[in-house]
Amino acid sequence: MASFSVVEFLSENHGIEARAGKKGSCPFCGGPHFSITKDDALGKCFSPSCGRYINQANSCPTQKQSLFKIHESIQQDFHECLIKQEGKKNGTAWSYLVDKRKIHPSVIKASLLGAIPRNYNLDEKFDPVISEIESELNKITGTDKHSESKKKALSHQVELLKEAKEKFKRVLIGKRSLPRQGALTFAYCDELHRIVAIKFREPFTKDITLYKPTQVMGLFGHQLFEPYEDEKHKQLNEKLIVVEGEFNQLQLQSCLVRASDILGQRFTYAFIAAVGGVNSADIDTLKKICRTPYIVYDNDLNRAGEMLVEKAQEKMSLYAFTTPDPDSDLDSFIVKSGDDVATIEKIRSLIQKSVFCPRKIERVADEIFSSRQKQGQSDKRKDFEVNATAYNILIADLQDRGELLYDGQAAYFFSKTDKSLVKIDAESKEYQNLLSDYKINASEIIYKYIYSELETTAAKTARRVSVYPFAHYDHKTNRIYLSNFSNQVYRISQNQIELLENGVDGVLFLPNKKYDKFVFVEPSWQGSLWDEKVLCQIRFSNKGLHPSEAKALLLIWILTLFFPELFPTKVILAFIGVKGSGKTSAARRVLQIIQGLKNDVTMIPKEASDFDAIVTNNSLIVLDNADTKNPWLDDRLAITATGGTAKKRKLYTTNEYIEATIRCNLMITARDPHFRRDDVADRVLPLKVERQNKFKSENKIVREIEAARDQLMSELIIFAQEALGALNQAKDDDDIGSFRMADFSSFASKLGRYAGIENKVEEIFKKISAEQSQFALEDNPLFILLYKWVQKNPDHKVTNVRLCEELSDFAKAMGQRFEFSDRGAAFAQRMSHLRPNLKEFFDITESSGGKRIVYYHFKIKKEMSDI
User: Fold this and answer.
1) Bridge-partner residues for 660, per DSSP?
2) Amino acid 695: pLDDT
3) Which of 197-206, 453-462, 775-784, 845-854 is predicted with the least confidence, judged by mean pLDDT?
4) Residue 105 CB-density burial (10 A; 0-12 exposed, 13-18 middle, 19+ buried)
5) CA 686 to CA 769: how far, in whole Å?
6) How far apart are CA 273 and CA 237, in angstroms?
7) N or C: less crowded end of the chain, CB within 10 Å?
8) In angstroms, rounded to a whole number, what is the distance separating the alpha carbons of residues 354 and 320?
9) What's 535's DSSP letter?
């Protein structure tokens, strides 16, 4: 809000209660058409019989001797002269406006337009004010510091007024023997609606002169306002529309009035101002009124109109558009149209299609750098004050260029121009590059200050969003949003695949510079490229699962990447096979098709913190050769599969931690896997591969992927599109099965049902359940000991305690160590965890022995008797 308040002035001086941005009673004529600007700096009556206004210049006692007061008095005289010309003969300023330029009379009466009266005497306006100030100056007799300061200020004011009077006279008289009369006047105002300059134009000519007593030019016409309340035309006064010439401004307001007359509606003015030309444009005042205006530049053949946009970009961000016809401006575009109602719709459409033009970032960087330098010997600012000034410039520019966002854990900056999303992370290269554009280096102290302030600002005020790494599935609309890794999104529905900007429908993706862009292409190939280039290149084992079943499971698992919201718990895909089985090559092939050739398999890191960094910064990784025992791997795999969080110390703090949600999908390769803990094994999809008969060089595989990646990704998109059909068909089905990864089995069942092979899918999952159990129990000492014990004791019924004792003795007799000796409670808990897997190998029956005693009987299943 401005320091002067129209609302407070009306309340204190007239007893009228009003609100900024609203209409109320006029203190002058009593009518209901007195409007107040949103910034509370100007109030104006739009009744044709009144037209008076309130601003700082004519309402504050401290301004009564100001140059602005003189300007206002002169403008009132000029305006009255123009209004008196209505209905008179041709050749007047009024007839020029109405008849020649087609400006509506209502607009003329409401605007700061005028005409010079005959024999206008400027001395009557300036001299009394100058004499009053000189009289006050002569009364000051003291020689103290305060008196001398006051003398200096009053002397400067007298000098300013005398210079202004002489300038005005030169414009008004010029080389004439008598003062000019009848010339049309345009009053320009600053951001507080004080008249700072007046332009003169001889009617029916291009004879133009300018009175500008200070360096401030101001704008013409921005005091003409009234808020639109309907959504359809909100764009016409939500942001300031800026044009070059005054007649562009007057013609658009006239067009609105005429269109309202045609439609039988009460008209409302747009928020529009003229700068008066490229060379005289006062960008500083423009920025004070609106940080990001819409500039309508003239469509000049020599592209001179674009210079206004370029000049404004030195100091501000903006939206720009021009009229569609070559060598035209807004005035000629409206007049030529002849249909005001249609023209308003065309202009509204042009506003919607306007191009965002950010401020030249070099100028912002210069402004920030300048703000950080000492501003002379009197500059006593502390470091935090200097940093705060720089931050305010930075955050204002960021908000012009885009938007700060917050997802509950991290802050982001989303750019309007390239639709890129940058995570506000002090260690992020993208964030460091963002600040380097403003000439702020990560090694500087201010870097830490800005990082902290951006985080705080975002957490308090930014819009809450969800940010995705690769894909997002919206179950309400049954649509997939898929990042192409280049700030664009494929929106996939059952019937359509569209390439749109990042952020469409509020769906945002965080780019990863390691991932390569891909392009969807309509399929022109025969058969399945995935089958040819990927699935058939893997030699799946025929033990347990048939190779065709393993291929189907692999493809289904890949499709789950497109539907992350359906999988709060993720399946870990494991390629298990001997050396030379191509397990690493298979996993690498899938990874590089999806993310691009810059990506490769990852060796198991030594530290858990390194693993956390990997899974929190990627959407898909391959852990290669997980063959050695690792004390933290089982825990981390379980957390990753369940979508847990990873903690890390926040930069610039000693004991503050942040939690990053893990949304990474895992593939893992091993010959002798050591991630068989029951809670992990239940989430592993083990696909066994055999040694290859023929070997293809990795270089050739890479070339094949590079040549066909777009087609392979396109085929996946089409598969995912078909999956949408399956989900839509089965949207009311609740698939409950015995498979431990219920989300995965439910998804696969729906795909099978849609394809007419539901029974086949069920058979596959029965087999994979056995494979999972075998994977979990293979090389498990307890399982091996129990199996051998049951072979020798097929009829025994035992309690957990007794079984623990029996197995302990059995192991001792075989010369083996039994880890649960004399630990019956731990043994019972372990058996409880293993029981789902044990049931794949044993028929387990329970019977009561009374007093909460339970007996167990184990019988080896017939199909497992030769294990």
Assistant:
1) 646
2) 81
3) 775-784
4) middle
5) 10
6) 11
7) N
8) 5
9) G
The residue ranking higher by pLDDT, 140 or 696, is 140
Longest dimension (CA), the chain: 132
Q: Which among 19, 42, 43, 45 is positioned nearest to 32, based on CA atoms?
A: 45
Q: What per-residue confidence (pLDDT) applies to 734?
A: 66
> Which tokens in the block code for residue 100?
């020649």
Q: Which of 214, 270, 207, 265 is nearest to 242 (CA)?
A: 270
Q: With both helix axes pointing from N to C terminus, report the angle between 145-173 and 67-84 in degrees, rounded to the nearest 10.
A: 30
Helix (H) / strand (E) element for 529: namely helix 529-533
**Phi-psi region for residue 538, left (φ > 0), alpha (ψ -120 to 50) or beta?**
beta
Instruction: Please give the single-letter amino acid code of residue 206.
Output: K
- According to DSSP, the β-strands at 184-189 and 508-509 are unpaired
Burial of 573 (0-12, 13-18, 19+ CB in 10 A): buried
Strand 34-36 relative to strand 23-24: parallel, antiparallel, unpaired? antiparallel
Segment 91-105, tens digit of pLDDT:
899 999 999 999 999
CA distance 11 to 59: 13
Query: Any bridge partners for residue 508, and if so which?
Result: 467
Distance CA 812, CA 614 (A): 44
Strands 113-115 and 184-189: antiparallel
Q: Which of 235, 215, 389 is nearest to 285 (CA)?
A: 215
Q: Cα separation of 751 and 749, whole Å?
A: 5
Amino acid type, 753: R
Using the structure block, give the residue that is written with the tokens 């949304």.
Answer: 663
Candidates 361, 339, 248, 259; CA nearest to 295 is 248
In one letter, which amino acid is 148? E
From residue 21, how far is each of 265, 354, 496, 685 by CA, in Å? 21, 26, 44, 63
Instruction: State the amino acid at position 336 in one-letter form.
Output: K
Which residues lie below 8 Å from residue 856, measured CB to CB, with a gap of 6+?
Answer: 797, 798, 799, 800, 803, 844, 845, 846
Which two tokens mark 126? Answer: 């300036």
Token code pair at residue 273: 């101002």
Assigned token pair, 588: 């690498």
SS3 assignment, position 334: helix
**Closest by CA position to 276, among listed 334, 218, 327, 323:** 218
Q: In what order do the strands lie in the sheet with 463-464?
A: 421-423, 411-415, 402-406, 463-464
For residue 230, count other CB atoms closer than 10 A to its CB: 8
Q: Tell me which DSSP letter residue 117 carries.
A: P
Contact 535, 551 (CB under 8 A): yes
pLDDT at 605 over 60: yes
The CA-based angle 756-761-767, given to 5 degrees, is 160
* Residue 136 pLDDT exceeds 70: yes
- Give pTM, 2 decimals: 0.79
Place of tokens 């100058």: 130
CA–CA separation, 617 and 577 (whole Å): 28
CA distance 552 to 767: 13
H, E, C per residue of 121-170? CCHHHHHHHHHHHHHHHHCCCCCCHHHHHHHHHHHHHHHHHHHHHHHHHH
With CA atoms as reference, report the closest residue to 656 among 457, 433, 426: 426
Give the number of residues written for the chain: 867
Spell out a b/e string for 716-736, using b for 16 or more CB atoms within 10 Å of the CB, else e.
bbebbbebbbbbeebeeeebe
Q: Yes or no: say if 246 and 199 are a contact pair by the CB < 8 Å rule.
A: yes
pLDDT, tens digit, for every residue of 174-186?
666 666 889 999 9
Strand partners, 858: 844
| 326: amino acid identity, one letter | P
Mean pLDDT rounded to a whole number for the chain: 89
Q: Classify residue 522 by burial, with Cβ atoms within 10 Å: 0-12, 13-18, 19+.
A: exposed
pLDDT, one tens digit per residue, over 490-502 is 999 999 999 999 9
Place of tokens 């042009």: 350
| CB hemisphere CA count around 354 (13 angstroms) | 26
